[in-house]
């Protein structure tokens, strides 16, 4: 009895039309990265286990997949390899290992799958694509790079055209300084910011009450903190409103950095309407040390952040004595695509890869069909040849289901007349069928496809 075919849980497996759309999304992201001069990097799907797990702990380590050969399992050996769970730890290893061969600041992008032992639930994947960019400095890294990343993201999402979006920025130093100014000691910062992260998910009053519980007697400070975070305009006015707290050194440093990043991003062409200062961005507290970013689709707030990142002080401290500060942003491509596909924001039917299909009208003319396809491919078009001797109606039905724009027909009559028949299969085509001289085929196909 045959084994029932079934997809492993927690993976996104697409049919060709959706896969085309997903691949084109990845291509757009890749072009956006390269437009700013970022270099491609790929690391292995698996890393040496002790290297990969150096920076993990708690829940993350529980989600790691180990790689083990059947021979090693039988011998009872501990796993030596583990699948990467993100692209940051492999990047840290890569930079530390190849440090003396890299040109700093090192600008890299990486678009690859990562693996996590997630529970099988909607919107959570065990295998998924991440699209990361990072700029790594040696000893220092100018804030100009922090301003550049939102400009890259703006260009990518403008081209993807998923709808209006907003890039929100903040600064960790400003956040911690603000808490100090309002009377919370460093020991309370993590707890307060954990509650701050609930803003937008719970009411302001509920969040205020939760913050007030962190340290008794801070009710007024909690209300003032929430009011400041929720009452700002998100632009230059926010920077001015915050200036009254500059007497706290850490806050003043964070505010100066945030102002420089905000103004630098605007100078790179990002509209002020799409760049907002959001003091409530409080994720990644233990990792990010300065600038932080999150991007949201305005019409789909329930998606949460579709792109996030920030600045960190030392990327590879576990692997090298060199200080390697950096700033980066990551797009969770699989999660984003799957949810937008489900919401019909992305079309379920992408155009065909092939731009023309050469039909098999007479088997004796197979060499002619091959020559036509070769000529069009040389001109830069994607061309498929239908093999076999199926009836023309069946071939045209195949072309229609494959959504190929143009069908090319040549029979004995066309061959003798020195012409090629082109059928425009697209809806609303002005001319459905025309004969063109054989020597003008490439030009005729170009006119049709660019019309």
Compact description:
The protein is of the alpha+beta class and 451 residues long. The chain folds into two domains: 16-342, Bira Bifunctional Protein, Domain 2 (BirA Bifunctional Protein, domain 2); 356-449, Anticodon-binding domain (Rossmann fold, 3-Layer(aba) Sandwich), CATH 3.40.50. The protein has helices at residues 16-35, 49-52, 59-62, 70-74, 88-97, 144-160, 172-181, 186-196, 204-214, 219-231, 236-242, 249-267, 333-342, 366-378, 392-402, 412-417, 441-449; strands spanning 39-40, 46-48, 66-67, 81-83, 106-115, 127-136, 165-171, 275-277, 291-297, 307-312, 326-332, 356-358, 383-385, 406-409, 419-424, 433-437.
Summarize the structure in words.
The structure is a single chain. The chain has 451 residues and is α+β, with helices and mostly antiparallel strands. It folds into two domains: 327 residues, BirA Bifunctional Protein, domain 2 (2-Layer Sandwich); 94 residues, 3-Layer(aba) Sandwich (Rossmann fold). Helices cover 40% and strands 18% of the residues. It is built from 17 helices and 16 strands. The strands form three sheets. An eight-stranded mixed beta sheet has the order 1-5-6-11-10-9-7-8. The protein has a five-stranded mixed beta sheet with strand order 13-12-14-15-16. The two termini are 53 Å apart. The mean pLDDT is 90.
């Amino acid at each position: 009895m045959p084994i029932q075919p079934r997809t492993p849980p927690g993976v996104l497996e697409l049919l060709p039309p959706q896969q085309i759309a997903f691949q084109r999304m990845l291509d757009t992201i890749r072009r956006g990265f390269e437009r700013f001069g970022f270099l491609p990097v790929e690391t292995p799907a698996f890393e040496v286990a002790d290297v990969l797990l150096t920076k993990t702990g708690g829940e993350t380590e529980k989600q790691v997949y180990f790689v083990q050969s059947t021979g090693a399992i039988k011998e009872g050996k501990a796993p030596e390899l583990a699948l990467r769970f993100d692209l940051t730890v492999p990047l840290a290893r890569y930079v530390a290992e190849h440090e003396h061969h890299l040109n700093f600041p090192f600008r890299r992008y990486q678009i690859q799958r990562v693996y996590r032992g997630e529970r099988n639930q909607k919107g959570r994947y065990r295998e998924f694509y991440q699209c990361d960019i990072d700029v790594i400095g040696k000893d220092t890294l100018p804030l100009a790079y922090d301003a550049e990343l939102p400009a890259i993201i703006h260009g990518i999402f403008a081209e993807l055209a998923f709808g209006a979006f907003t890039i929100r920025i903040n600064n960790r130093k400003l956040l911690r300084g603000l808490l100090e100014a309002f009377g919370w000691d460093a020991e309370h910062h993590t707890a307060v910011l954990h509650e701050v992260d609930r803003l937008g998910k719970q009411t302001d009053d509920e969040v205020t009450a939760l913050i007030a519980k962190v340290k008794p007697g801070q009710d007024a400070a909690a209300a003032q903190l929430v009011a400041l975070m929720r009452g700002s305009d998100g632009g230059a006015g926010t920077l001015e409103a915050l200036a009254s707290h500059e007497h706290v050194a850490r806050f003043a440093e964070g505010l100066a950095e945030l102002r420089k990043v905000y103004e630098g991003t605007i100078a790179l062409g990002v509209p002020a309407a799409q760049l907002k200062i959001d003091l409530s961005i409080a994720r990644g507290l233990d990792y990010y040390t300065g600038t932080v970013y999150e991007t949201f689709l305005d019409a789909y707030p329930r998606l949460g952040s579709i792109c996030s990142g920030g600045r960190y002080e030392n990327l590879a401290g576990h692997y090298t004595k060199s200080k390697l500060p950096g700033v980066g942003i990551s797009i969770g491509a699989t999660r984003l695509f799957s949810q937008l596909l489900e919401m019909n924001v992305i079309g379920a039917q992408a155009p065909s890869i092939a731009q023309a299909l050469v039909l098999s009208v007479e088997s004796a003319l197979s060499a002619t069909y091959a020559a036509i396809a070769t000529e069009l491919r040389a001109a830069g078009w994607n061309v498929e040849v239908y093999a076999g001797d199926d009836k023309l109606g069946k071939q045209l039905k195949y072309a229609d289901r494959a959504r190929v724009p143009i069908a090319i027909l040549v029979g004995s009559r066309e061959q003798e007349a020195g012409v090629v028949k082109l059928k425009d299969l697209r809806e609303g085509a002005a001319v459905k069928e025309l004969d063109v001289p054989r020597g003008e085929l490439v030009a005729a196909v170009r006119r049709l496809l660019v019309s």
